[in-house]
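FORM 7B: Structural annotation worksheet

SECTION A. Query
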Amino acid sequence: MSALPKAMRTMRIIALPLARPKIPPDQGLKPHAVFNPNRMLIFYHFDLSQSNSVKSQEQSAIKRAVKWVSTKAADLWAGFGKAPEGSWKLRTYELGERIVDRIDFEELALKGVDPSLGPSITHADITGQEGNGVFFSQKQSPREASRIPLIYPPSIYASLSLTGVNEMSHPSIVHLRTLLTSREPRHRRGFWMWMAIAPLTAPFLLVPVIPNLPFFFCAWRSWSHYRAYRTSQYLSSLLDHGLIAPEPSRALDQLYASHVPSLSNIESLRSPMAPPRSAASLLVNASNTNNGRPPNDVTASSSQPSVSNVHKTSQRLLLTRKAIPHILQLFGLPQSSAADMYRAVEQVRGRLGGKSGR
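SECTION B. Predicted structure
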């Protein structure tokens, strides 16, 4: 049975490496550049909501109102997707979904976190005083029981150099901190930029019947950047207080070993009789071979990537779309979590020069 109190057991961060860093590294890039190929590309799934009713009761009226508006907006948008074929609502929905597919997967992951539902730095159960309905083991301090595990595949991180001896210098913690440091100013600028653009859409109010979609788009992008900005600050604060701890997962390691992108995966798709390679050999050879490529997850077209780009992409890719259902099953994640994972995989393929299905 888990040593964590019931309110904390569901709190976790799952790190899913998608691509290796560029070798040799590009010396001309700044360390905190947003799109830095010298860093490993990792998708983070955040489960930071405490499973107690006290947290929701403590929310202010403003936060409850914001949540209500967000829920209504999401329901309205979902209704657009159910509109009759050929209607402007359905066309708007399809265009909007294509736009979402092109938003950085890092932003989508960050904006999905609600800091008000996670552990608070100044909350009683963090500072050592009695928590609201949360009971800790006598062998654990409140701080230890409140730590959030950062689950990662250890063999993937083994190639990254250690910068210290304590867990705060672990590559998984260092990468998350570097990501937050690079994303925070980007989302702050994005929030103010889209906020400034929104008033310029006023003339669209004169268009009859159809609502002012440009204004709603600007407001949504500003809100999205704001959510990602606040989450970056929140997670950085958790790191500063040592409330995020690395936790290796052997099961996740085995999953990566069995889904390493390689040319044999493609050949097995083309020829059902082709003998598959073992998971161990795939894991060992993935970083040394240049004759692999990820499974062809999208329909073929005349604009296929060049052979050299495919080889470079396959050398760095760590995960394919086929692994996502197994990840959901391994961690008991809902099907709704798959959408952002699929987007992340396709975006990474695009950034590495491979063909993206977006």
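SECTION C. Observations
The two ends are 42 Å apart (CA to CA). The first strand starts at residue 12 and ends at 19.

SECTION D. Sign-off
Analyst initials: ____
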